[in-house]
Amino acid sequence: MREDFIHFIWRQVRFDLRSLTTTTGDTISIQDFGQHNTNAGPDFSGGQVRIAGFQWAGNVEMHVNAGDWYAHGHETDPAYENVILHVVYEEDRPVYRSDGGRIPCLELKGRIPKDIIKTYWRLQNNEDWIPCNNQLHLVDEPSRRDWLDQLSRQRLNNRSRHFSTRMEHTHRDWEEAFYQSLARALGGRVNADAMDMLARSIPLRSMLKHKHSLLQLEALLFGQSGLIPSFEEGEEAYVTLLRREYQLLRAKHGLRPLPIAAWRYLRLRPNNFPTIRIAQLASMLHRTGQLFGKALAAADAKELQNMFEVKLSNYWRTHYRFGKEVKAGERRLGVSSIRSILINTIAPALVAYADQRGDDRFRDRAVDILQSLPAEDNAVLRRWSKLGYAAENAADSQALLELKTNYCDAARCTDCAIGCQLLSRPYNAEEEGPLLTLNEEASVYSLMGC
Questions:
Q1: How far is 346 from 182, CA to CA, in rounded Å?
Q2: How far is residue 237 from each of residues 72, 233, 326, measured CA to CA in Å?
Q3: Which residues contact 277 (CB under 8 A, 6 or more apart)?
Q4: Residues 137/370/182/213 CA torsion (nearest 10 deg)
Q5: Contact assessment for residue 285 and residue 208, using Cβ atoms and an 8 Å cutoff
Q6: Through-space distance between the first and last CA atoms of the chain, rounded to whole angstroms
Q7: Which of 99, 213, 282, 394 allows an S-S link to 373, with CB 3.0 to 4.6 Å?
Q8: pLDDT of 427 higher than 70
C-alpha cells in the first residue's frame, strides 16, 4: 500500500465514518476534510475536526504507518506544527509534537471497503502494460473524454513551465528562449542536448549580426559545434571557407566550441544527421531572425508549418556530412518533424506567452494547433489504440503520452480519473481478471486487517 491510496480514501471519503475515534478513544467529528496539497508541506490544508468536544482547524497529515512521520523528518519541520489530525492506515507508534503533545491519530485499518482494497491491490500488483489493462473498457466514454482533455491541458502547461524556466535563464528574452527551444527540438531525441548546448553557446543576438550572410551563420553554428573537420590537402572549397570564416568570427565574439563527442549519428536517418539539422537552423535564421515574433503572428498551424519550409545552401543539397558527396536533394524538414516542433515547442511557448501577458487568445491558439494536427504515431500510441483508446488528433496523442508516462508507469491510479472510477466500482472478479491465488488472497486480507 502507498500513501497516495490513503489520500484517495480521504479525498473521496471512501471509509466508514460511523463512530470515529482517535487511537486513544476520543470521539472525532469531521466538518471539513480540507484541500489536497500537492506541494511541500502537510497533505491537506484547511481541515476542520471536532475531537473530544474541542473544535480544531488546521492541517491533516497522512501516512501508511504512523512511524513514517519520523521517517520523513516531520518532527523537526515547523510546517507540521499545525497538524490537527494524523490519518494513517495503521498506528504502529504514537507521534508527538515538538512541545511533547501527542498528535490525535485516526486509524483507517478495518474501515476501508473490501471492494476498494481488492481493486487497488489488483491495480498495483500486475505486470500488464498499464495497471488497468483488463479493466479499461469499464470506464464510460464521457469520463474518458473529460480526462483526456484535462491531461492534454496538463501536458501543455507542464511544457510551458519548461519554456518559462528557460525564459528566466535568458533574462526574459522571448526570442532567445525560443531560439534555444527550437534548436533543441531540431536535435530530436538523439541530439537534443547537443543542439541545446550549441544554441546556448552563441547568443541569438550574436547570430543576428550576421543574418544576411548564410555562410557566416553556417560558419558560426558549425564552428561552435566542433564538426568542421581539420584541414586536409585537396579538401572542398566550402569547408576551407567555412573554417576561415569561423576563425575570424570566433575571435570577434570570444567563442569556445563544443567537443565533437557531443554529437551522435548512430541509427539516425541521414536527413536527421546533426549536420543537416544545423544547416536547417542556419537557413531559418537567414530567412527570418525573429522566429518567435513570426510564430506569434501566424494565423494557424498551416502558416506555422510554412516557417520551417526552408532550403539549404548548395553544399548541403549534395552532402549529409562533411566531405562525402551524395545525390542532390532538398534535405527539407519532414512533415512529422515540423509537426513535432509545433506540438512540443511552439504550442508550449504560446501558452507561456499567454500566461505572461494575461492574454488567453494565445492559449486558445495553442489548443487549436494541437486539435488541428493529426495524432502522433509511435509505439506507445499504437498500444493505446489496441486498447480502444485511439487518438483523434495531436491533443489526444499528447494526453495519452502524459497518461502513460506520468500516471500508468508510476502506478498513480489514485490520482487518475480512470483509476478513481475503477476504484469506485463494486468489485467483480470476472470483470477484473483471473481469480487471485491463495497467496494473493492472503495479501489482500492482510490489507483489510483480517
A1: 8
A2: 65, 11, 17
A3: 186, 187, 188, 191, 195
A4: 150
A5: yes
A6: 15
A7: 394
A8: no
Does the pLDDT at position 447 exceed 60? Answer: no
Q: How many Cα atoms are found within 13 Å in the side-chain-facing hemisphere of 166?
A: 26
Nearest 10 degrees: CA dihedral of 117, 41, 412, 445? -20
3-state secondary structure of 32: strand
Instruction: Report d(CA 294, CA 393) in Å as an integer.
Output: 24
- Whether 129 has a pLDDT exceeding 70, the answer reads yes
Average pLDDT over the chain, rounded to whole? Answer: 92
* DSSP secondary structure of 55-98: EEEEEEEEEEETTHHHHTTGGG-GGGTTEEEEEEEE-SS--B-T
Confidence of residue 431 (pLDDT cuts 50, 70, 90): low
**pLDDT score at 396:** 97
- Grid cell at residue 75: 518532527
User: How much is the average pLDDT of 260-270?
Assistant: 94
- Tell me the pLDDT tens digit for each residue of 56-89: 999 999 999 999 999 999 999 999 999 999 999 9
For every residue of the chain, which 3-state class applies, written as one string?
A: CCHHHHHHHHHCCCCCCCCCECCCCCEEEEEECCEECCCCCCCEEEEEEEECCEEEEEEEEEEEECCHHHHCCHHHCHHHCCEEEEEEEECCCCCECCCCCECCEEECCCCCCHHHHHHHHHHHCCCCCCCCCCCHHHCCHHHHHHHHHHHHHHHHHHHHHHHHHHHHHCCCCHHHHHHHHHHHHHCHHHHHHHHHHHHHHCCHHHHHCCCCCHHHHHHHHHHHHCCCCCCCCCCCHHHHHHHHHHHHHHHHHCCCCCCHHHCCCCCCCHHHCHHHHHHHHHHHHHHCCCHHHHHHHCCCHHHHHHCCCCCCCHHHHCEEECCEECCCCCCCCCHHHHHHHHHHHHHHHHHHHHHHHCCHHHHHHHHHHHHHCCCCCCHHHHHHHHCCCCCCCHHHHHHHHHHHHHHHCCCCHHHCHHHHHHHHCCCCHHHHCCCCCHHHHHHHHHHHCC
Lowest mean pLDDT among 20-34, 110-124, 342-356: 110-124
- Residue carrying C-alpha cell 482494497: 117
Give, as one character, the DSSP assignment of residue 414: G
pLDDT at 429 over 70: no
